[in-house]
Amino acid sequence: MCDESILDLDELNEECGVFGIYGHPDASQFTYYGLHALQHRGQESAGIVSTNRDKFHVHRGTGLVTEVFDNERIRKLKGNIAIGHVRYSTAGGTGIANAQPLVFNFAKGELAIATNGNLVNANRLRKELEETGSIFQTTTDTEVIAHLIARSQAPTLEEAVKEALGRVVGAYALLILTNDQLIAAEDPLGLRPFSMGVLGEAHVFSSETCAFDIIGADFWREVEPGEMIIIDQDGLRTSRFAPRAEGKICSFEYVYFARPDSNIGGINVHAARKRMGRVLAEESPVEADVVTGVPDSSTSAAIGFAEATGIPYELGLIKNRYVGRTFIQPSQELREQGVKMKLSAVRGVVEGKRVVMVDDSIVRGTTSRRIVNLLREAGATEVHVRISSPPVKNPCFYGIDTPTRDQLVASSMTVAEICEEIGADSLSFISTEGMVEAISGAAGGTKRGYCLACFTGHYPTAIEDEMAIGGKR
């Protein structure tokens, strides 16, 4: 099953999103709403596991949240504790077998697990486990964690989880459900966003704070790097499975992945993106008549660019939201038509104008070239491309679906060569320093560390197996 749209072939995709709630009679209903708010983080599959403290109730399926669940299915997910997951696969394949949350029976009882992220030592751990008798039912990294928990000789589940997390390396926001416990954990570097909120007497966890807003929950705080939170009938307690360290949140959450209404690290994503646009304008000004953003993730940066330059911001590009997700055509001519079906240039806005097209990133370069052509066909006299992230030169191994290094156009071409490749009149990227300044300086933000590996090639963890030579999983 392939759920990439014609434009998504040249875009980065987040692996998944997680949501969990403890102590609410409508836990499954709220988990459904939470997953709907996180739909942008994964569209291949969705799942919810709930418990009424007696047994698990499970439903998973491929497709969007609204396709997987209906009122009847949600009513069957009884209980006041639930976890949910939306998935876009980078590690492992597509299909129902790899849909999460995964459910297991082991010596300490039933266990459901859902993660957002990617482990860089999963292949080695899987091989070790298989050699000692473990039988895997899926190809996901998440199952590696489950097997490590099941194989642990620790006296309690809490200690078994700590032991397992002490062996894995990578990025993850993790939720574990038993019949009477909810456990949340964040990787030691805090690479993936993970927040905790409250809804009355209930506790809520989510990959993004936008899910709290949709259910009326209040943000409490972020799950700290290396922290494990346990909630059961005795209340909430916290523990550490790794020493406290400076976080390294993925910078692309601010550039592209997170919803604009989410807050990460005390920083509103929309505010950060606007500031990126302002910094980009300061670093790479250009004479033009109109500024437009590539919808939707680039809109905030385009507004910031326009405000900083005084050039009017206009809706020069319109996204058609009703194109099927599986619209992929084999021929180049039909691919070009597919772009036009999903994205249209507004002739009345761009005709006869010098246009600044602001986008969040350039991956392979093919989509940028097609959008530049759309603007020219609509009568733009000049098209100047401004990118609100630095050149993406390196693959990500922490839960973002990037092409191999040799498919990343910035890894083998100069900015001038990319400009010629996409047919723009000029091209500029924000500097890495400028992007970090824009994120950290956004309203309400605090200084913290960021993972910049896809831009700089400096990975915050060791990279194992075939990934070290430039591939991706």
UniProtKB/TrEMBL annotation:
Q: Please give one Gene Ontology molecular function term for this protein.
A: amidophosphoribosyltransferase activity
Q: What is the active site of this protein?
A: 16
Which CDD domains would you find in this protein's record? GPATase_N, PRTases_typeI
| Co-factor remark | Binds 1 Mg(2+) ion per subunit. Binds 1 [4Fe-4S] cluster per subunit.
This enzyme catalyses: 5-phospho-beta-D-ribosylamine + L-glutamate + diphosphate = 5-phospho-alpha-D-ribose 1-diphosphate + L-glutamine + H2O
Names of the cofactor(s)? Mg(2+); [4Fe-4S] cluster
EC annotation?
2.4.2.14
By its UniProt entry, which InterPro entries does this protein fall under?
GATase_2_dom, Ntn_hydrolases_N, PRTase-like, PRTase_dom, PurF, PurF_N
Q: Does the keyword Magnesium apply?
A: yes
Binding-site positions, [4Fe-4S] cluster:
250, 396, 451, 454
Example of a GO biological process term: 'de novo' IMP biosynthetic process
Keywords, A to Z, come to: 4Fe-4S, Glutamine amidotransferase, Glycosyltransferase, Iron, Iron-sulfur, Magnesium, Metal-binding, Purine biosynthesis, Transferase
Chain residues that bind Mg(2+): 297, 359-360
Q: Which domain of life is it from?
A: Bacteria
Could you tell me which pathway this protein works in?
A: Purine metabolism; IMP biosynthesis via de novo pathway; N(1)-(5-phospho-D-ribosyl)glycinamide from 5-phospho-alpha-D-ribose 1-diphosphate: step 1/2
Q: Residue limits of the Glutamine amidotransferase type-2 domain?
A: 16-234
* PANTHER family assigned: AMIDOPHOSPHORIBOSYLTRANSFERASE (PTHR11907)
Family indicated by similarity: In the C-terminal section; belongs to the purine/pyrimidine phosphoribosyltransferase family.
Give a short account of what the protein does: Catalyzes the formation of phosphoribosylamine from phosphoribosylpyrophosphate (PRPP) and glutamine.
Write down what this protein is called.
Answer: Amidophosphoribosyltransferase
Q: Which organism is it from?
A: Paenactinomyces guangxiensis
User: What's the source species' lineage?
Assistant: Bacteria, Bacillati, Bacillota, Bacilli, Bacillales
